[in-house]
């Protein structure tokens, strides 16, 4: 028998009786979490498919929580907590990227055993993904329609559209810190997606040409670039995973599948932060 086999944690004071006490499973509501995987076939890989998407939704819930906190902190000029939070969002997207690596172990033939049971359900219907895109600035109103039948979700999406995006708040921050930003950009309808503007590029050029004079803004800008870098990788990995598993077939929700996802690769969240690099 190897040393430690009969180790009893109670001898060092560990609680072993949880009758009537808060336990690990109680705190995390594990009965609900671990009971939420409802397979509809006997296909082995259906469990992988469900868990990958459920855990992605949990990470997205945290991303929404953190993006909202970062935006609020920037609005209040509290940049140190905002930097920490934005760094965390990037790490969340790193986790989401890793999840595709696991899903790619599912082969096309594996997926065919249960794909029909998905019906019209599709990842593009994820309201949390839409919340993230809205919060980061991609405000495509057409993507509200899949949620019109769920009043609570519709209200959340509408409320998000009524708020300035994370990038809007950063541009307002730059203006407060003495960087000239176009008035029409700062005063625009925040429900509409921001379009690239030469005046915003010019403002960021001032920051990037003298980062030592505008260090706080420079750091915020680079945190946004880092975040979008991970976000783009997530989208790209989504495309390659879908193409690897279903080829060029249409998505279950009726989209063009990979053609729809590839179109999403062209979306820029913070366009001037990428274009200013060409100007330096």
List keywords for this structure.
single chain, 280 residues, mainly alpha, Methane Monooxygenase Hydroxylase, Chain G, domain 1, 0% strand
> Strand pairing plus helix content: what structural class?
mainly alpha
Distance between the termini: 67 Å
- Low-confidence stretches are none
CATH class: Mainly Alpha
For the record, the CATH architecture stands as Up-down Bundle
Helix content: 55-70%
Radius of gyration: 23 Å
How would you characterize this protein structure?
The chain has 280 residues and is mostly helical. The protein has a single domain (41-279), classed as Methane Monooxygenase Hydroxylase, Chain G, domain 1, CATH 1.20.58.480. The chain is built from 13 helices and no strands. Helix 3 (46-75) packs parallel to helix 6 (127-136), helix 6 (127-136) runs parallel beside helix 7 and helix 10 (198-209) packs across helix 13 (271-279). The longest helix has 32 residues, at 215-246. The model has no long low-confidence stretch (mean pLDDT 91).
């Amino acid at each position: 028998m190897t040393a430690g086999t009969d180790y009893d944690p109670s001898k060092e004071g560990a609680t072993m009786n949880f009758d009537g006490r808060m336990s690990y499973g109680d705190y995390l509501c594990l009965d609900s979490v671990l009971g939420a995987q409802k397979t509809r076939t006997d296909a082995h890989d259906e469990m992988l498919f469900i868990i990958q998407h459920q855990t992605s939704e949990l990470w997205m819930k945290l991303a929404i929580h953190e993006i909202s906190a970062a935006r609020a902190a920037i609005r209040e000029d509290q940049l140190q907590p905002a930097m920490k939070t934005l760094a965390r969002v990037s790490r969340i997207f790193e986790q989401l990227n890793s999840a595709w690596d696991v899903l790619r172990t599912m082969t096309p033939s594996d997926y065919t055993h249960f794909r029909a049971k998905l019906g019209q359900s599709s990842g593009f219907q994820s309201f949390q993904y839409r919340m993230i895109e809205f919060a980061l600035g991609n405000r495509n109103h057409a993507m509200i329609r899949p949620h019109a039948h769920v009043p609570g979700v519709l209200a959340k999406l509408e409320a998000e559209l009524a708020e300035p995006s994370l990038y809007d708040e950063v541009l307002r921050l730059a203006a407060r810190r003495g960087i000239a930003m176009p008035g029409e950009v700062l005063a625009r309808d925040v429900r509409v997606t921001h379009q690239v503007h030469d005046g915003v590029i010019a403002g960021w050029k001032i920051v990037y040409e003298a980062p030592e004079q505008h260090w706080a803004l420079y750091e915020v800008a680079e945190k946004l670039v880092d975040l979008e870098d991970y976000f783009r990788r997530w989208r790209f990995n989504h495309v390659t995973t879908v193409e690897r598993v279903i080829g060029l077939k249409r998505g279950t929700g009726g989209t063009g599948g990979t053609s729809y996802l590839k179109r999403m690769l062209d979306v820029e969240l913070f366009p001037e932060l990428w274009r200013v690099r060409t100007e330096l």
